[in-house]
Automatic annotation (TrEMBL):
Residues 147-207 form the IPT/TIG domain. It comes from the Bacteria. Keywords: Signal. The keyword Ribosomal protein does not apply. Transmembrane segments: none annotated. This is IPT/TIG domain-containing protein. InterPro entries: Galactose-bd-like_sf (IPR008979), Ig-like_fold (IPR013783), Ig_E-set (IPR014756), IPT_dom (IPR002909). Residues 1-27 form the signal peptide.
Length: 356
């Protein structure tokens, strides 16, 4: 299966693609102002890239379908004085620097209505209003949560959004949904799913969950990989089933850490001590206050550590084993409050391992 792409790399790819596309559009612009005729001559999706297919990435792909939540290039004329652009009645944001008289680069709002709607794009400029007929479809699926350490034969529920006529795969193993709605899919986990990525495809595209089956340490509760835990200060309040603010699923860890206090998770199973299968530790973290947390492994709090910036919103952290000194085995991971201002309330979720 194609590796999950690095978020920052995708942003760089996208920005480079948009720059090229906009430059091309500008070079065809016949004046600094409006051409005097408002019309649409074509629509292209800025980037098309199936996460299950290696090497298929394309840019500026002509299309007659708009999938909400994606960038598109609208080509034509009369766009120089663009006031608004909407799809099925909902306006989408546009950056004026991404508009010329002959092209509009627009991110179609992910909340754009798509079910039993008029299938219409409306462009408003100083020249007037143009209503253009085009099929509007939902965004690619949004996977919010599922039991990551599920076993073959388990009946699980995948939660998310935009599950319109969904197709579910565990790696390259396709399974038929037992039932589905726009926000939930019930499936039976197949044989051969261990260390495979779960993916969901709808009418608009495919989304691959970043977690591989069987790699989770904490997933609404501690899993079979978790062996034990320890608080350096036993008076710290600790809740392993905090439900008011989570990243994935329905629960997360809430730890009311005193200044410089620590929290350690022991790894239970030798197959996870073995660093041959995995390359990094991953987790999501946030704080009641912005601060810092020291991450360490195998009980060593001084060498091969990572100082993590903790924000007041959920932040994804991935710590490669190479940063931890390339240990031969992973026996425990730990967190130390490191803000330097008297302690913090720290939240942890979706703690797990990254497959090589």
């Amino acid at each position: 299966m194609k590796n999950i792409k690095n978020r920052m790399l995708l942003k760089l790819y996208f920005l480079a693609s948009i720059s090229i596309l906009l430059f091309t559009s500008c070079s065809n612009d016949d004046s600094a102002g409006s051409s005097g005729k408002l019309e649409v001559t074509g629509i292209s999706r800025s980037v098309v890239d199936d996460p299950l297919v290696e090497g298929d990435r394309k840019v500026d792909v002509p299309t007659d379908i708009i999938n909400a939540g994606n960038y598109y290039i609208i080509r034509g004329s009369g766009f120089a004085t663009l006031k608004s652009i909407s799809f099925n009645g909902l306006e989408s944001y546009f950056n004026p620097t991404m508009v010329t008289d002959n092209a509009i680069v627009v991110l179609v709002d992910s909340k754009t209505p798509y079910y039993n709607e008029m299938d219409e794009m409306k462009i408003v400029t100083n020249l007037g209003t143009l209503n253009y007929k085009v099929a509007i479809r939902p965004p690619s699926p949004n996977i919010k949560g599922f039991p990551v350490n599920s076993n073959p034969g388990d009946i699980i529920t995948i939660t998310g959004e935009y599950f319109l006529r969904p197709v579910v795969n565990f790696g390259d193993i396709q399974v038929e949904p037992i039932s589905s709605t726009l926000t939930e899919i019930v499936v039976k986990v197949p044989e051969g799913s261990y260390l495979k990525n779960l993916s969901v495809t709808n009418v608009s595209g495919t989304t691959v969950a970043p977690q591989v089956i069987g790699s989770e340490i904490y997933d609404d509760a501690f899993t079979n990989i978790w062996g034990w835990q320890s608080l350096w200060d036993g008076t710290n309040e600790f809740d392993a089933a905090y439900a008011k603010d989570v990243y994935q699923g329905t629960k997360c860890v809430q730890w009311k850490a005193g200044e410089w206090d620590g929290y350690v998770i022991g790894i239970n199973n030798w197959s996870y001590h073995d660093t041959g299968k995995f390359k990094a530790v991953r987790f999501w973290v946030k704080g009641e206050k912005a601060g810092k947390v020291k991450f360490f492994a195998n009980g060593d709090t001084e060498k091969n550590i990572v100082i993590v910036d903790v924000r007041t919103s959920w932040t994804y952290i991935e710590v490669p084993y190479s940063v931890l000194g390339n240990p031969n085995e992973l026996s425990q991971i730990g967190y130390q409050e490191f803000g330097g201002f008297g302690g913090n309330v720290i939240y942890l979720d979706d703690i797990g391992l990254v497959l090589k």
